[in-house]
Amino acid sequence: MLADLAEGDPVPAERELAVQFGVARETVRQALHELLVAGRIERRGRGTVVSRPKLTQPLGLQSYTEGALAVGRTPGRLAVTTEIVGATTELAAGLAIPVGAPVLHLERVLLADDQRIGLESTYLSSDRFTGLATTFDPTTSLYAAIRATGVRFGSATERIETALASPREAELLESTTAMPMLLLNRRSLDTQGVPIELVRALYRGDRIAFETVLT
């Protein structure tokens, strides 16, 4: 069916597809749901259209901006939250700072070609990156801003697993709580082994995939 349609073309109605292929509407409905989860089609308004291919994001020590540009997509970000919070026990351990120390929390919606791809929360030591809360433009690359302070990324540990979005997260991602998501947690260190950031990013499973090169 999709082989004859281009990106943005409307998908025929369930009734039409059922007649065309001689199957029950329930069978068509299940097939369309699988295509939706796979990112082959998407809801627009009250209709369904053919979506563009998933963004394939390389796994590596680079920013989302760098990864999107590397595969020919136009990255963007929408600021949701910029705040200073006290370090919880978990944040203090991850950033190697005292409990209660000031932490900069940045929450942003990640875009690719104006499509909402993910929701990213980043935590950094406010004492280490003094002034970043007031000088950083949240629509730009955070990694570029960090490097501009003289800090160099040395290594990172990432964990990726499946998850479901909360109602708030689903709304920010223009999705639903039933859509499968990819949850990424990352801890980045500088070249001296000192923690730089903790990141929690939730990605729409129908719009992004991750890949890496094994040697």
Tell me the strand order in the biggest sheet. Answer: 4-5-6-9-8-7
Shape: elongated
The proportion of residues forming helix, as a percent range, comes to 10-25%
**Percentage beta strand:** 35-45%
InterPro entries: Bact_HTH_transcr_reg, Chorismate_lyase_/UTRA_dom_sf, Tscrpt_reg_HTH_GntR, UTRA, WH-like_DNA-bd_sf, WH_DNA-bd_sf
Keywords: DNA-binding, Transcription, Transcription regulation
Protein name: GntR family transcriptional regulator
GO molecular function: DNA binding; DNA-binding transcription factor activity
Keywords:
215 residues; Arc Repressor Mutant, subunit A; Chorismate lyase; 6-stranded antiparallel sheet; 10 strands; 24% helix; elongated
Walk me through the topology.
Blueprint (H helix, E strand, L loop, with lengths): L13 H8 L3 H13 L3 E4 L2 E4 L4 E4 L5 H7 L4 E12 L2 H7 L6 E11 L2 E11 L6 H4 L6 H7 L4 E12 L2 H6 L7 E11 L4 E10 L3 E4 L4
Parallel strand pairs: 3-10
Antiparallel strand pairs: 1-2, 4-5, 5-6, 6-9, 7-8, 8-9
Helix pairs in contact: 1-2
Report on this model:
- The chain has two domains: 2-50, Winged helix-like DNA-binding domain superfamily/Winged helix DNA-binding domain (Arc Repressor Mutant, subunit A, Orthogonal Bundle); 55-211, Chorismate lyase-like (Chorismate lyase).
- By secondary structure, the protein is an alpha+beta fold.
- Strand 1 and strand 2 form a beta hairpin.
- The strands form three sheets. A six-stranded antiparallel β-sheet has the order 4-5-6-9-8-7.
- The protein has seven helices and ten strands.
